[in-house]
Write a structure and sequence with these properties.
Helix content is 51%, strand content 12%. The chain has 16 helices and eleven strands. Bound molecules: inosinic acid (IMP) and magnesium ion. InterPro entries: HAD-like_sf, ISN1.
Length: 419
């Protein structure tokens, strides 16, 4: 059993988030000990209600304990001893926390919506914990407020995979509200194009709505688009038919990015291209290679689709080859599984978000929230944004809308308390 478990675990770590799995494991204990699945045979409704209230209390206590462990980790971060925190011993993969997480309050909030404590057959799940973490993060941001910058991934976060942001999308009105409050907005997407027109075609619903809105120009200018993870920055322009104009690189590049040489960029893309071609050959994939100025991708030939395993194998193999290559040690890159394709880009979303922070005058990580769908450690691109700011992990554009509504609800509550 142990061996089998370990083998499974080793093979699937790239598909797990260790902090979420660990919290899920902690919540499983009271679930196993206190849930009353047999109560349904006895038809005693009061026993079910009592079970729910017991489970609620126990889950809340656990979330409070985890909250304290995170506070202790933050204290260690400040003292320069993060490697020695108890949380780091328990979950070695945890990184930097930009703010505390209000996990107990967030659990109460999500439990009142998802009725997690009332379940007696299904324990607290990965998605329950993911959503509690999102709520805890935004509660902390709103209470510590104000949020100064929100960055959004594109595919799966603002629109369905491969689609575009249509005028009827529910997220548009919410983004306009954020901008009307003076919050800066960045769309930080992997989609890498040199021309503003290509971004306009993906984002036209939002860009046209901003253009047509009553917002004063200085608020309309609070949106930027960062393409190719961290390679192309565009700003709003009321006079451009595409609503966007490129910002010259020398105006926004971070100092370290200025050191990336063209030779290294080409060498890294050559290495990535040959790794992708190797995958195509080994797995007999019906695929095409797309080589760009700052990225290279493997997409299915027209009418084809890759299996999930083929995408995962390709991205893990390519990432490994790049990691051990000399140029991969000199230059940051991001190899990721886009759901139906695999891309390797120069730089990553940590650089992309940081460049947006700099562009808007030097916004801190603790005042920035990145919302995305790709947070698994290997083969995902939003994951890197965690190095630059706080994050929320959503699973669909509908969840993005729900998260923005949650933020505005919390904002109103804070406003009410302040009065
Ligand atoms: P995101 O979810 O907004 O980060 O977009 C990811 C998707 O953009 C990928 O899965 C690709 O389908 C698409 N894409 C288009 N051009 C590029 C590129 O140059 N690099 C990476 N992804 C690209
Ligand atoms: Mg995405």
């Amino acid at each position: 059993m142990t061996t089998r478990y370990r083998v499974e675990y080793a093979l699937k770590t790239h598909r797990r988030d260790q902090l979420i799995e660990w919290i899920k494991g902690l919540l499983a204990v009271p679930f196993v000990l206190h849930s009353q699945p047999t109560a349904i045979f006895e038809e005693r409704r009061e026993r079910v209600a009592q079970m729910a209230s017991n489970a609620h209390r126990r889950y809340a206590e656990i979330m409070r304990d985890v909250e304290e462990l995170i506070n202790d980790h933050i204290a260690n971060q400040k003292a320069g001893t993060a490697e020695r925190s108890k949380l780091k011993l328990l979950v070695p993969t945890v990184g930097t926390f930009f703010t505390p997480l209000l996990l107990q309050d967030a659990f109460m909030y999500q439990d009142s919506r998802r009725f997690i404590s009332s379940r007696c057959f299904v324990p607290p799940s990965f998605n329950d914990v993911r959503l509690i973490l999102n709520t805890a993060q935004i509660m902390s941001l709103v209470r510590g407020g104000p949020i100064e910058l929100m960055t959004f991934d594109g595919d799966v976060t603002l629109y369905d995979d491969g689609e575009s942001l249509a005028p009827e999308s529910a997220v548009i009105r919410r983004i306009l509200t954020l901008m009307s409050k003076g919050i800066n907005v960045g769309i930080v997407t992997a989609a890498g194009y040199l021309e503003a027109m290509k971004y306009y075609s993906r984002l036209h619903g939002l860009l046209d709505a901003i253009h047509a809105s009553q917002l004063p120009l200085e608020l309309k200018e609070k949106i930027v688009v960062m393409g190719g993870e961290s390679n192309y920055l565009f700003r709003y322009s009321s006079s451009s038919p595409d609503r966007l104009i490129p910002v010259p690189r020398h105006e926004w590049l971070l100092d370290d990015m200025k050191l990336w040489s063209e030779e290294d960029i080409n060498e890294l893309l050559d290495t990535a291209e040959s790794a992708l071609k190797g995958s195509i050959e080994t797995m007999h994939l019906d695929a095409q290679i797309i080589r760009k100025e700052r990225g290279v991708g493997m997409v299915p030939s027209p009418g084809q689709r890759f299996a999930r395993e083929q995408l995962e194998e390709t991205v893990l193999l390519t990432q490994k080859i790049l990691e051990i290559s000399p140029v991969g040690r000199r230059l940051p890159f991001c190899a990721f599984n886009g759901g139906s394709d695999v891309f390797v880009d120069i730089g990553d979303k940590a650089w992309g978000v940081q460049a947006c922070q700099k562009f808007f005058g030097g916004i801190e990580g603790a005042k920035t929230l990145h919302i995305g769908d790709q947070f698994l450690s290997a083969g995902a691109n939003d994951f890197k944004a965690r190095l630059a700011c706080t994050t929320a992990w959503i699973a669909s554009p509908t969840e993005t809308v729900a998260l923005l509504d949650e933020i505005s609800e919390l904002d109103q509550l804070m406003e009410f308390k302040r009065k």
